[in-house]
Design a protein that fits this description.
The complex is a heterotrimer of chains A (377), B (299) and C (352).
Chain A: H1 2-5, H2 8-26, E1 54-59, H3 64-78, E2 81-86, H4 89-97, E3 103-106, H5 112-117, E4 123-138, E5 147-148, H6 150-158, H7 167-172, E6 184-188, H8 193-205, H9 207-212, E7 225-227, H10 229-239, E8 243-248, H11 249-254, E9 258-259, E10 261-263, E11 269-270, H12 274-280, H13 284-287, E12 308-316, E13 318-319, H14 322-336, H15 353-364, E14 367-368, E15 371-372
Parallel strand pairs in A: 1-2, 1-3, 5-10, 6-7, 6-8, 13-14
Antiparallel strand pairs in A: 3-12, 4-8, 4-9, 4-12, 10-11, 14-15
Helix pairs in contact in A: 14-15
Chain B: H1 6-17, H2 22-60, H3 66-70, H4 84-115, H5 118-132, H6 136-151, H7 157-182, H8 185-193, H9 198-209, H10 211-226, H11 230-235, H12 253-261, H13 266-294
Helix pairs in contact in B: 1-2, 2-13, 4-7, 4-10, 4-12, 5-7, 6-7, 7-10, 8-9, 10-13, 12-13
Chain C: H1 8-17, H2 43-82, E1 92-93, E2 98-99, H3 102-133, H4 136-148, H5 154-179, H6 200-225, H7 228-236, H8 241-270, H9 273-276, H10 297-304, H11 311-346
Antiparallel strand pairs in C: 1-2
Helix pairs in contact in C: 2-11, 3-4, 3-6, 3-8, 4-6, 5-6, 6-8, 7-8, 8-11, 10-11
Classes of the chains: A alpha/beta (377), B mainly alpha (299), C mainly alpha (352).
Amino acid sequence: MTKRCGRAPALGATLLALGLLAAAACGPARTPTGGASTSQSSQGAQPTAGEARALTGAGATFPAVLYSKWFDEYDKAAGVQVNYQAIGSGGGIKSISDETVDFGASDAPLTDEQLKDAKGGALLHIPMTLGSVVVTYNLPGYNGSLKLTADTLAGIYLGEITRWNDPRLVADNAALAPVDKSIAVVHRSDGSGTTAIFTDYLSAVSPAWRQRVGTSTSVNWPVGLGGKGNEGVAGEVKQNDYSLGYVELIYALQNKLGVAQLKNRAGQFVEPSVASTTAAAAGVAETIPDDLRVSIVDAAGDDAYPIAGFTYQLVYQNMTDRAKAAALAKLLWWEIHEGQQYCADLGYAPLPAAIVQKAEAKIEAITGDGLPALGAS
Amino acid sequence: MAVGAGAAGAAVARRRLSAAAPGERRRRIVNAAATGLIAAAAALSSLVLVLILGYVAWQGLPALNLPFFTERPRPYGEVGGGVAPAILGTLIMLLVAALLSVPLGIGTAIYLAEFGRGAFARLVRLVVDLLAGLPSIVVGVFVWALLVRHVVGQYSGLAGAVALAIIMVPIMTRSVEEILRLVPDALRESALALGVPRWRTILGVVLPTARVGVITGVALSLARAGGETAPLLLTALGNQFFSFNLLGPMAALPVQIYTYAVSPYDDWHTKAWGSALILVLVVGCLSLAARAVTGRARW
Amino acid sequence: MTRNDPGLADSKDLAAVGSNSVESRAGGGGPGSGDRLAGGGGGAADRWFSAATVATAAGAVLTFAALVALLAAYAAPAMGRFGVGFLTTTTWDPVFERFGAAHLIYGTLVTSAVALLIATPLGVGAALFVAEYAPRWLGDPVSFVVELLAVVPSIIYGLWGFFVLAPAMRYTVEPALQRSAGQVPVLGALFAGPILGRDLLVGGVILAVMILPTVMAITREVFRAVPDTQREGMVALGATKWEVVRNAVLPYAQGGIAGAAGLGLARALGETMAVTMVVGNSSSAISASLFTPGYTMASAIANQFTEADKEIYFSAIVEVALALLLVSTLVNLLARVLVWRFVRSVGVDVAV
């Protein structure tokens, strides 16, 4: 093998040259690249003058499937490359708070204390879409959909229900009676907005949970393994038989994992879907606070799915870099309008019209170096 | 007595066993058992590497096609695309890290080999050893606090390169210092005797004589840095687009492997194995070449 | 790590005959360092050059100092708030802002202990094979192959551990352990509980694979350094091969073996990626069972650093990093002292 490799420096130089050639062949940042299956012609739109060409965002994995589709399309539509890294809502909050990214993404709205700590001043929550946190599971040979109630779900995650054939589970799912296996519980190992929504729900419906564990992006889990990101949890559930975890709907669907029906406040077992997620947000426009931070778990209504939530992008209201502000404002506008057409196919619910209006007002308030960012070129 | 008693010894022992006295028989049995265990340890240890590398090759080869090397990733869940930005990012960061660490590493090595005396030199040598043993995640934390949080103000390829440079310097220093010490004094003194100033002696006589060893040191530290993941998670973040911008986030192959591996998508898993295969090949070649040159392993 | 320079005797005369600007000579042999070779006509340039190298060396020292200082500064709030209790409490609760790293330390210790327990016998055995038993044509390739393990990046171990080792442990090895050793009264507690395939044991095993080459290579050098007189004495007395090894080589090499294990331990402490993919990443309370999912200090930092969104949470993570730095530095130093003492006792160079 030594002979084949030859001299180290020659090898290094060759690799470097190959790498640079490859990069050159694929083109630098400006032209749309990648994706062999794109049907559009390769000359995409160019960003307008005075607008930044590249933006960086980091945060939630909950909407990451949608965002990765969005930014792939936005590159073709506007010629601006939005680099989004899904490191978890906690990471998104910390990154935007430390100003190490241009925008953050989080399903969990910031607490008042976190808002105070944000180093760039006033931080805006712009809602992007609605999603549902589903309980996903891997039960070999199980037909049909698992039915869970608030009590059984809390019991599993509190470590009180440890086996699949526990009487409380069998009461709603007769087919579980012969499954004498322990439940491999999976949760998030990173700071997660999905966790925030999930624990928000458990705190709302289980006093024991509220007291022992509480609501946050990162909690002290009584039991279970940690997976990194929604992808990590889905990956763990997929790999391990008899496991159970919570993820955003699309992760369970894309990986053909089982999705549980949950009993909502009205007493109905509801399946997570775009329809039931939209139902959970019915009427929220009336009660939503001015800063758009709201929780919609355990919603009323027969068809409402009980664990649903908005996901937000976090941007500073007053930015110093005019080009970046302009690009960001334009991106946000596109996301709440043109971007919404991609939601339903991926299992996310589009924003209700009233919410879009409120979001528009927020975007219009963004300034770059003192001037309104939207419409600036 | 021959060291390689091994198989021949065992055969002889077996023949002698039947003719031995009881105490001696026991000793010979114990000897045979010990030999067996020791050979088994060696066999198992050798087998592990073969297993791992073989598996990486088996899983990774299907992933290697042209789009893999030239395209950027597709959105979540869509099949196709490639890891080209990560390959490019790794190469760029390694290049910058080398540019940063080679002067520092060789400079420190020259100091230790040529000038160093007394307490300060002992301190330097100690610190180099300590730096070599640092957990790389701790280096990541340091560079994040220094560059990401403050100086540059965002996740950046530069921060990633600096983290890699910090990891590379001690490896390079140790290798190069050793090589420099091997250069015979006669060479130095001949040059000095001819009136060549000290600094030119070192740069023009000693270093060139040791050049192969120096390159080896650089290659070894590159091999080590190329495989680092943890510090890059905290500094370079990642990027699904091609980027030459050192002041912005940059993709890296080891980080891409990690992200893809823990995901639920089969296509991404295959790509993770493919990336692992490339990484092993490059790192392996660098290390093997370095090892062949110096004749012993260094890490 | 010094080498004897064979050319030195000649070069001293050469230097004396040559330039008169050769300054004070260091006493005794010793290879080419020291200011006794200073000189030549480039006075100012020489000083600049020497200053430049001193600067780079100082840079290394400064970097290390800055690292420790920066970590200490960020960790200070947590150190102030939690004090020594940080090392002894196991609650890691970002919601109620109670942080104790005891389970992280426990996880680190357990995985490292498992790694050492597996890698040391294997590594010493393989080293014995190469140094004492095998002929060159067999020993060299074996040695080479095991050392190649050190070259493989840790993420690849993580990948292999995640897809190959963990399922094998989950479906084959761990159930077998539970059925056998798990039934033994006291020992059984180590193998109790549900088997999830992501636990401290799997973390320990993957670490063992990663530190095996370190342990083997250094131990091999240690064995090679044991003088033949020891062996020859035993052989002359009619000892079997194993008796020679056991009574002449091993006792002599004890310190060196301990040092090798120590260096392996130092490497195990710092491993992040491979461990984090198989260890379970769970902050559950400390339990005796090796089958519980756990956390090590390094993997906790990797998972939670980028998202510790509260000041005190972040400070707690950095405090963990500081603790990790201190522990691995101490182990490193200790191991080097052990090897160095062995080297001195034997009087031959052992490359470390």
